[in-house]
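Final report, results section. Input specification for complex C-07:
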Amino acid sequence: MKERAKNLYFHADGDSFFVACEVSVQPQLRGKPVIVGGDRGIAVAMSIEAKKLGITRGMPVFRIKKLYPEVIILEHHFDLYEDIQKRMYDILLSYFTEIEVYSIDECFALARPSEIKYFGSEEKLMTELKKELTKKLGVTYSLGLARTKALAKQASKLEKPNGLVMLLTKADEVRALKKTSIKDVWGIGRQTVPLLERLGIKNAYDFVNYSDEVIQQKFSEPVFILKKELSGEPLMEVENNVDPRDQKSIQSTSTFHPASTDSKIIWREIAENAEHACKNARVIDLVTNKVSFFVKDSDFKYYSDEVKLREYTADPGIILNAIEPKFLPLLPKRERIRSTGVILHNLTRPENIQNDLFGKQEKVSKNLRIEETADKIREKYGEDSIIRAASLKKKNK
Ligand SMILES: [Mg+2]
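Structure output:
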C-alpha cells in the first residue's frame, strides 16, 4: 500500500437534503415528485422527480399546484433535519477527529494519514463511510476527498447525487478542474465571474493556470487563496466546531505489524484501546454504558461484539472485565488479525445520569476519580508511569 504523508480533506453534501430527510421517515414518498417549502410559499428543496418535471428552487407553490397537481408539497421540519445532521456527525466522528459543520447538510473534515491507513486505503474509508451513512440515516450524501478543502468541495459536486469522487492524483485534479465551469467554483461571487470570463477564464482549470500576479493584482485575497487551493496548495484549515461533549461515541483503534494470531497480543491491543478510549472520554467528562469491540483480519474482515454495562463508567478496568468473556469466542480461528478497536457508545454527561442508581453510581464515580488521578500522574510523568492492572495482568499471562 502506498503511504500518504500529507493530510487530505473531506467534504460531504446532502443530496436534496430536506426532501431526503422527509422521505427517510415517510418511505411511501420515495420515487415521487416531492417539494419542501409549503410553509414558505416557494419550493426550497425538490426531489429528483420534482426537478425532472421542471420545478426549480424558488418557484412559487401556487404555480406548482396549478402546473403540476401531482406534486406532494411538504412543510419544513427542522427538528428532523437537525436530528439527522447530529447523527451524521456522530458517524463521522468515528472516522475523523476534526470536523467542521459548514451548513445543515454540508461539512468538511480532515482526513489524517493515520485515519486513512486504519481503513487500508482512501477508497476503503470512503466506501465504508458512504455505506454506513446511507444505511443508518436513510439519506444520501455526495462525498469528495482531495488535497485541499476547495478541491474536496468541488469533488463532491461532480457526481451528484450519491456521488463519491476522490482526487488523489494530479491527473484526477486536472480532469475535475476542466469539468468545473468558473461560475460553479465555490467562493467565486456572481460579480467576479464576468471579470474572470473577460480574462478568458471559462473553467477552474483556466483559473488555476492563469498568472498568479494578475489574479493577485485584480482580485481580492480570498480569490487568490482559492486559486492556490484549487492548484493543490492547502491554505484553508478545517475549523473544528463540533462540540466534543455532544458526541455519542468514542473509538480507539490500532493497527499492528505484523498481523498476529496470538490472542495475548490481540488482547493487549484491546486493553490499550479501552484505556485510550476511556481516557479520551474522561478528558471531556463523558461516561458510557455500552461498549463494542472488534478485530479485523488481514482481508479486512470485521468481527465485533458488544457488552451492556450495569452502570455508566469511563473506567477501563470495568469495561475490560465485561469484554473478556466475549473476547476469545469472537476471535476467528487461525485468521491473522491486523487491527483492533474499542468503541464507547451511549456517551452521556455524568450530570445527566438519573439518581435512582445512586449507590452504585457513587462507587463508580469514586473509581473514576482514581482514574482521573492516574491520568494526571501520566500527564506529569509520562504514559508508562502507570500501567493498569488489567492490561498488565494480560501482558504477563
Ligand atoms: Mg446539499
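Residues 13-14, 17, 105 surround magnesium ion (CB under 6 Å). Residues 1-168 form a domain with the Alpha-Beta Plaits fold (CATH 3.30.70.270). This concludes the modelling results for the funded period.
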